[in-house]
Amino acid sequence: MPRPPHTDPWIRHTFLICLLFSVILQGTLAFAVPMQNDPKGFEGIPWGATFSETDTFIKIEDTGRSQTYELKTGAPSLGTVQVDSMRFVTFEGKFARVTVRYQGKATHDQILAYLQSLYGPLDRTPGQIAVGPVKFCSWTGFETDVHLRYETGTDRGIIFFESQELRR
């Protein structure tokens, strides 16, 4: 009696091996580079600090449990690099996240160099940095996560600096 064509053992083994490799490759895209120097906050403000309007910050959004602030004076910068916006977010009154938006390839390259100088070099192995139209870079510390997303088609980037504890 002839066997059905798709039940041969080598086809099943080949399928399982391909499935295993695809799962492994998908998992490598989610890994982040370990952070060399966890700042435990952002630019001297520790995660979980009480946050309110001051001479430096103005509240721009209040959704009850979450409030968003921006700098009152001057154009925001990350290190010495000018950025389009920088928003500071609290959760239940505790400092939890900073969102930075920027545009331009030159700005992206400067920001990437700055972040690597603070948190350590990126892992350049395949799967750690996307080579397509959207690039992702991440650093993970004990208390801080930094996630950068850059779209090459629009030359726009966004960075999230987050408290691991308050993100949960």
Structure commentary:
A hairpin with a 3-residue loop joins strand 4 (about 55-60) and strand 5. The longest helix is centred in the N-terminal third of the chain and has 21 residues, at about 10-30. Helices cover about 25% and strands about 35% of the residues. The strands form three sheets. An eight-stranded mixed sheet has the order 1-10-11-12-9-8-5-4. By secondary structure, it is an alpha+beta fold. The protein is globular, with a radius of gyration of 21 Å.
Briefly note the structural class of the backbone. alpha+beta
Strand order in space, largest sheet: 1-10-11-12-9-8-5-4
- End-to-end gap: 58 Å
- Number of β-strand runs: 12
Number of DSSP helices?
A: 3
Query: What composes the largest sheet?
Result: 8 strands, mixed
List the helices and strands and how they pair.
Elements: H1 9-29, E1 33-34, E2 41-42, E3 45-46, E4 57-62, E5 66-71, E6 77-78, E7 81-82, E8 85-91, E9 94-103, H2 105-119, E10 134-140, E11 144-151, E12 156-163, H3 164-167
List keywords for this structure.
168 residues, alpha+beta, 8-stranded mixed β-sheet, two-stranded antiparallel sheet, 12 strands
Q: Care to give the gist of this entry?
A:
The protein is of the alpha+beta class and 168 residues long. The chain has helices spanning 9-29, 105-119, 164-167; strands at residues 33-34, 41-42, 45-46, 57-62, 66-71, 77-78, 81-82, 85-91, 94-103, 134-140, 144-151, 156-163.
